[in-house]
Design a protein that fits this description.
With about 375 residues, the protein is an alpha/beta fold. The protein has 16 helices and 9 strands. The protein is about 45% helix and about 10% strand.
Length: about 375
């Protein structure tokens, strides 16, 4: 069967008026749409395969890993109370080599649809951050960057808005300088943060940009509890900001006493409130990449406790079902973690009951039902 978009393009090339240009454009858009649909099918099939391996309790995951987080740098000027980086990170500060980054993205494309390029550092301080963003976006991976607005100088904002970034998260704790400094440290400056947000949003509106979609986020903690309403009121109709988020507190597995004290139990994640003993899904589903190329299976692994491979010397495929990943899955299946205290004592494990009936098991059908409800709600009128 002939390739219609390609054939249309060849025919138009032999002509030469303005209507021909429109036809070429339509053919190109048709091709892009076709590739996007094929990419979506590929991602859905890969999701099915990984779920198959997880729910059946196999040590080998027959799917391909999704990278959920990639760390351009672990440098950050802030000293946040709720981040384990401040007190518990001992690995050296560094910046990912751009060549290594491109190598990783080239392996991830077609399987990773959304990627957060941040972890235990502020990514806007990487000298090539916007080149990194564009490289991934041009290969079909939508990028999200999270930053503290104090870090957004005018030059950084201008560079950011020139990039192809899909999503930007601005982390703001509180509605005043006192709360902001208490949680983010002495280098946090509330007034500067407000000025930077104002400049960012005004420039975005002036330029008529749709992207990046901007979310401003506050974490639920003891001192922010009385500021939820004021925070929403301050930002919910702010031109240039698409979403206001008040996020449950992450305890990073519940293993860090000083971090746990920042929030009451009701402010913590649902997983912390109801810990389970089922195998964590992460070793079957996704991986996280540190700035030096080392791979860990979990995005809360601040110090590289569970390194399962190194992308400087190995491929994603080699790591995914390599000896260390298979051993980690075996630990979760059997519940025998040995020296792996990081997983053994984690209180925010994402796990579900094993099932030989996947994808017709109760958990999957429940999730499908929720997705259907959301779709119907979105398209309902009155």
């Amino acid at each position: 069967m002939p390739d219609k978009p390609l054939e249309a393009t060849k025919q138009i090339a032999d002509l030469g008026d303005s209507s021909d240009f429109n036809a070429v454009t339509l053919a190109t858009e048709e091709r892009k749409g076709m590739l996007q649909r094929l990419r979506s099918i590929k991602i859905l099939w890969n999701t099915f395969l990984r779920g198959w391996s997880y729910f059946r309790g196999d040590e080998v995951s027959v799917g391909y890993p999704t990278i959920t987080s990639l760390e351009p740098t672990n440098f950050c000027p802030m000293s946040c109370r709720m981040c384990p980086r401040t007190e518990y990170m001992t690995r050296k500060i560094g910046y990912m080599d751009f060549g290594l980054y491109k190598k990783i993205i080239d392996q991830a494309k077609g399987h990773t649809q959304y990627l957060g390029i941040q972890l235990f550092g502020d990514s806007v301080f990487h000298p090539k951050i916007w080149e990194m963003v564009d490289y991934a976006e041009e290969r079909g991976i939508k990028i999200m960057v999270s930053t503290n607005p104090t870090s957004l100088s005018r030059q950084k904002v201008d560079d950011l808005l020139k990039s192809k970034l899909s999503n930007l998260v601005l982390s703001m704790e509180g509605t005043n300088d006192e709360t902001y400094k208490y949680y983010r440290g002495p280098r946090a400056d509330y007034e500067l943060a407000i000025k930077n947000i104002d400049y960012l949003c005004k420039r975005k509106v002036e330029l008529g940009l749709i992207k990046p979609l901007i979310t401003i986020r506050m974490i639920k903690m003891k001192l922010t509890e009385n500021e939820y309403a004021d925070f929403r009121k301050q930002w919910e109709n702010y031109p240039g900001i698409e979403e206001v988020s008040i996020k449950n507190f992450s305890t990073y597995g519940g293993m860090y006493f000083s971090i746990n004290q920042s929030a009451s139990d009701k402010q913590k994640s649902g997983r912390f409130k109801k810990p389970n003993t089922y195998p964590c899904r992460d070793p079957w589903i996704n991986i996280t990449v540190l700035w030096d190329g080392r791979v860990v299976p979990c995005c809360i692994d601040v110090d590289g406790y569970n390194v399962v491979g190194d992308l400087q010397t190995q491929s994603l495929e080699e790591i995914w079902n390599g000896p260390k990943m298979r051993e980690l899955r075996r630990q979760h299946i059997t519940g025998k973690y040995g020296d792996n205290k990081f997983c053994k004592y984690c209180r925010e494990r994402r796990g579900y009951p094993p099932s030989k009936f996947y994808p017709f098991n109760k958990f999957v059908l429940k999730r499908i039902g929720k997705i259907r409800e959301l779709i119907l709600e979105k398209h309902s009128i009155g």
